[in-house]
Amino acid sequence: MVDSRGRTQRVTIADIASRAGVTSSAVSLAVNGKPGVSDATRDRVLQIARELAWRPNHAARTLRGVSTHAVGLALTRPERVIEQEAFFARFITGAQAALSRQHFSLQLQMAPDLASESTIHAEWVAANSVDGIIVLDPRSHDPRVEQLERLGHPAVIVGGEWNSATIASIRPDDAEFMRTILRHLTSLGHRRIGYVTGEQSFLHIRTRIDAFNGFMVDAGVWGAVLAGNFTPERAVDATDRLMASPSRPTAVVYDSELMAIAGMGALSTAGLGVPSDVSVVSWEDSLVCQVLRPSLTTLDRDAVSLGKRSAAALLSLIGGEPVDQPTTTASVIHRDSTAAVSDAP
Amino acid sequence: MVDSRGRTQRVTIADIASRAGVTSSAVSLAVNGKPGVSDATRDRVLQIARELAWRPNHAARTLRGVSTHAVGLALTRPERVIEQEAFFARFITGAQAALSRQHFSLQLQMAPDLASESTIHAEWVAANSVDGIIVLDPRSHDPRVEQLERLGHPAVIVGGEWNSATIASIRPDDAEFMRTILRHLTSLGHRRIGYVTGEQSFLHIRTRIDAFNGFMVDAGVWGAVLAGNFTPERAVDATDRLMASPSRPTAVVYDSELMAIAGMGALSTAGLGVPSDVSVVSWEDSLVCQVLRPSLTTLDRDAVSLGKRSAAALLSLIGGEPVDQPTTTASVIHRDSTAAVSDAP
DNA sequence: CTGAAAGCGCTTACAG
DNA sequence: CTGAAAGCGCTTACAG
Questions:
Q1: Chain B nearest-CA residue for A112
Q2: Which nt is closest to the CA of B10, judged by C1'?
Q3: Which nucleotide minimizes the distance between its C1' and the CA of B55?
Q4: How many CB atoms lie within 10 A of CB A131?
Q5: What is the number of other CB atoms lying within 10 angstroms of the CB of residue A94?
Q6: Where would a tag sit more exposed on chain B, N or C end, judged by fewer CB atoms within 10 A?
Q7: Which whole-number Å values give the CA distances from A342 to A191, A268, A334, in the listed order?
Q8: Residue of B nearest to A273 (CA)
Q9: What does DSSP say about strands B105-111 and B251-254: parallel, antiparallel, or unpaired?
């Protein structure tokens, strides 16, 4: 609406009501599809609402305590860790897909650190502006989770291990996934395996490390874990160090695609062929892994489906339904970067 | 706060007021750092607010017409176009960096299509829930832009060409950037150049195509444009077709990193070496381009800085300041995927 | 410096 | 089926 001075005015249900000759209560019932108004009135109101290009004011609805049909995700992402961007973009693509099917929207907000993330959560809960919250990359004794538990607001912890009336965890079986990768490699004859990790403060990375070490012991295979942090620089350093070892590994597992690509670069610089000298596995799959030459053997887990499952669990929690916890499986996509170990070095 | 039945109650300024023995008006002034209350009162109020873990209710503030210090970005992203994910994650990383410096937050919302994007914009404006809006991937005669112009809400169009009192465009000089790439290639002796494009309905892609064709004519060089859509499949097909040409190009430009990587795969499959037989340039730079072997020659434009500039422009617009339109430059990062053309084919 | 009141746009009991 | 009123939590004139 434009007033006499040409300024844009907000269109409210009161405007519609006065044009339609009814009260704003009737308009509210009409536009929300609730019973209590005659069909004739409803049609007239909807027609006028359309003419005036009326839009519901979310703030007013929220204040009134109505469900917002929104889910919140606050994200702490240090700018330097570019690898996580791919994960994060794919994750929210999946989450969005699951949410939009039930007409929920995804509210995303960036935070500089974990404490700010908690502040954002608290404000969302105080303002009733999201029906549920998704938490990524939980730490052990995560303050965000403790606060959400206290607030009693529905939340899903991706990669966590908390479960209560209001909190559910989506926990990919990282230990089993690691063993799946290692079985793939040992079945190809590899007996010396390196593992270059992501950020070790993440719970799921520690789970993978434990599983790696356990497998090495049980299978009597030589293994080495080098701590990375998702950056290519660290991946290159770790790869060089592994290759300098007197018992040089014939296969290396990387926690991310970017680290795996960087590692392959380091191997190529060192004059080592993939897979002729060293086999390479990336934990995370993506289109780049597929189109690369040599194409990368990966675990067929992708962030898109993780996002879908997390959102679906949160919607169950919000709806008061039991959370479906499907056991997740993952298999190795055998591409060109892994091959049978060549004869004695 | 927990009531007698153990349920969590929302803490409001009224709760603080009653504990502090003042009115809610005084609390409002105190927590917002406005004059009108004594220092003693302010301290007492802030102390109590902290004790009760009070959080401002955004919906109430918004409804009251107060600036939300938020910027909105509604995003239409077909799930299939994975390439755009990298762009988009980097873009919002940059935007977020610029915004948080001025304590603005970024509201992100996914939309299934352009019409829904417009609906979201309209609701944001109606509800006063963002101070400004960022629009990505404008089309010619873009309905989103026309609506924002009508609504008179501050907006920045990334890659657009609209400019008015409330709308600014961040327009990288795609034509000049294309010429920069082509000058790099011709200086290396290339006289037959292929170009595999992204989605042609995007304005900036069409600008690049025009510049490519113009350069070919002016320089008397043989050029071929093949329409892609950012997918690796189309990039592979286009590359194969270029290589089958009787006047096979010695260099190919790709509109994205993913397409360039896919193209290099196709070249390798065809038994062609990079850069020995064919030089390859990617329009967009990233860490993957850098760690890849051979590393990819790229235009040193990255989505992070584009996000920063877009957000900065929007903040200027919101603040009523003139929008700073720095002329953007870009240069070619010469890596291993381009080299001087080898002697006669 | 402080208090009482109005109102942002909407929904929801409660009467008629 | 419709109308009048209260109230969500907050801010901002306006009085004292």
A1: B100
A2: D9
A3: D9
A4: 20
A5: 21
A6: C
A7: 11, 17, 17
A8: B293
A9: unpaired
Local confidence pLDDT in tens for the 345 residues of chain B: 444 433 456 788 888 888 888 888 889 898 888 888 888 888 888 888 888 888 888 888 888 888 888 899 988 866 545 556 677 878 888 898 899 888 888 888 888 788 889 988 988 888 888 999 999 988 878 899 999 998 889 999 998 888 898 999 998 899 999 999 999 999 999 999 999 999 888 888 999 999 999 999 999 999 999 999 888 999 999 999 999 999 999 999 999 989 999 999 999 999 999 999 999 999 988 888 999 999 999 998 878 888 999 999 999 999 888 887 767 788 999 999 999 997 544
Question: What are A108's two structure tokens?
Answer: 């995303």
Smallest CA–C1' distance to C11, residue: A64
- Give the nucleotide with minimal C1' distance to the Cα of B65: C8
Chain A's closest residue to B54, CA to CA, is: A126
The domain made up of A13-56 has a fold known as 434 Repressor (Amino-terminal Domain) (1.10.260)
Å separating the CA of residue B48 from the C1' of nucleotide D6: 29
Identify the CATH class of B174-300.
alpha beta
Closest amino acid to nucleotide D8 (CA–C1'): A64
Residue A229 and residue A254 in contact, taking contact as beta carbons nearer than 8 Å: no
CB atoms within 10 A of CB A217: 10
**From the candidate CATH numbers 3.30.413.10, 3.40.50.10860, 3.40.50.2000, 3.40.50.2300, the one assigned to the domain spanning A174-301:** 3.40.50.2300
Asked if B127's CB is within 8 angstroms of A55's CB, the reply is yes
Question: Is B286 in contact with A82 (Cβ distance < 8 A)?
Answer: yes
Q: CATH classification of A70-172+304-319, choosing from 3.50.50.60, 3.40.50.2300, 3.30.1360.130, 3.30.200.20?
A: 3.40.50.2300
In sequence order, the 6+-apart residues with CB closer than 8 A to the CB of A130 are A68, A70, A71, A72, A107, A124
B64 CA from D5 C1′ (Å):
21
Q: Is A70-172+304-319's fold the same as A174-301's?
A: yes
